[in-house]
Amino acid sequence: MKEPKNINKPLTKWILFKTAMDSVVFGFGCFSFILFVIFLSVGLFHPNNPNSWQENLLGSLGGALFIYCFVIFFCVLGPIRNIMDVKKQEKALKYSLADEMKKNNVTNANYEDDLWFIFTKGDDILVFRKDYIKGIKSIKNYTKSGTMLVANVIRFDDKAIKIKASREGVLKFEQWFLNM
């Protein structure tokens, strides 16, 4: 998976969401195009097909678009949930991510310093400010293969939250937290 590009604008929640969705939309766009070609080929070259080529074209396009929209709808849920977590953090600590990023001149969707941890890859969006996290209670495998991890984290107000993300994201978060 490619690194998010530097956007030369202060980072916002919308830019984080867009960055996370870029690879998903492109990947499933290619997948849907392949499905469209397969549907169209089957429709056009099937010997007992009573439909015209126009009906086959529209049916194939409709089927591929339906599958694309259906898959994208469910893929969007993860990044939306992550952005809602950022909004909760903003509300709890009374700050605006856009204002903070503008003040610190942060333009990259992957950023770490003493105050901020921002990680975006695939559909993972992890954004944490140092004073939001009190500690990491545990990190466990979320999948049998170990590609996804879940970290049980203690917030500043002693409430526990779970961070589900790729192995890379959670381990980078742990390293950032332990080194700050």
Question: Could you walk me through the main structural features you see in this protein, from its secondary elements to its overall organization?
Answer:
The protein has helices spanning 13-45, 53-93, 97-103, 167-179; strands at 111-112, 116-121, 124-129, 133-141, 148-155, 160-166. The chain has 180 residues and is α+β, with helices and mostly antiparallel strands. The chain has a domain at 13-129. The strands form 2 sheets. Strands 1-2-3 form a 3-stranded antiparallel sheet, with helices on both faces. A 3-stranded antiparallel sheet has the order 4-5-6.
Brief overview, please?
With 180 residues, the chain is α+β, with helices and mostly antiparallel strands. The chain is built from 4 helices and 6 strands, in the order αααββββββα. 52% of the residues lie in helices and 21% in strands.
Order of helices and strands: HHHEEEEEEH
Radius of gyration over all CA atoms, rounded: 21 Å
User: What percent of residues are in strands?
Assistant: 15-25%
What is the average of the pLDDT values?
85
Helix content: 40-55%
The coarse overall form would be elongated
Structural class, by secondary structure, is alpha+beta
Keywords:
three-stranded antiparallel β-sheet, 52% helix, 4 helices, 180 residues, alpha+beta
Topology of this structure?
Elements: H1 13-45, H2 53-93, H3 97-103, E1 111-112, E2 116-121, E3 124-129, E4 133-141, E5 148-155, E6 160-166, H4 167-179
Antiparallel strand pairs: 1-2, 2-3, 4-5, 5-6
